[in-house]
Amino acid sequence: MSSRQTKPFKACLKCKALVRPDETKCPVCGSTEFTFEWSGMVIVLDPEKSKVAKFLDIKKPGRYALKVGY
Ligand SMILES: [Zn+2]
After folding, report:
1. CB-count burial class (<10 Å; 0-12, 13-18, 19+) for 26
2. Distance from the CA of 31 to the center of ligand 1, in angstroms?
3. Which one of 5, 12, 31, 48 is separated from 62 by 20 to 30 angstroms, measured CA to CA?
């Protein structure tokens, strides 16, 4: 297997949710577009109370990338 994936998760291009590489659909927004080019992980437990969640416009609890893309 040749793969340049070095991270345990891939990030959804739409909502920045981090999902396992074998997932084909984002559990948060339903998107099927992902990237391994992400950095910084934030775990949101309570989007209502999290400043980071507000900043990143996260509505559902979960694991997210701070930055997606290059
Ligand atoms: Zn998503």
Report:
1. buried
2. 5
3. 5
Q: DSSP state, 59? A: -
Distance 23 CA to ligand 1 centre (A): 11
Ligand 1 centre distance from Cα of residue 27 (Å): 7
Ligand 1 centre and the CA of 7: distance in Å?
17
CB neighbour class for 7 (10 Å; exposed up to 12, middle 13-18, buried from 19): middle
**What's the CA angle centered on 33, arms 30 and 37, to 5 degrees?**
130
Distance 57 CA to ligand 1 centre (A): 12
Domains of the chain: residue spans and CATH? 10-68 (2.20.28.90)
At 11-37, the pLDDT tens digits run 999 999 999 999 999 999 999 999 999
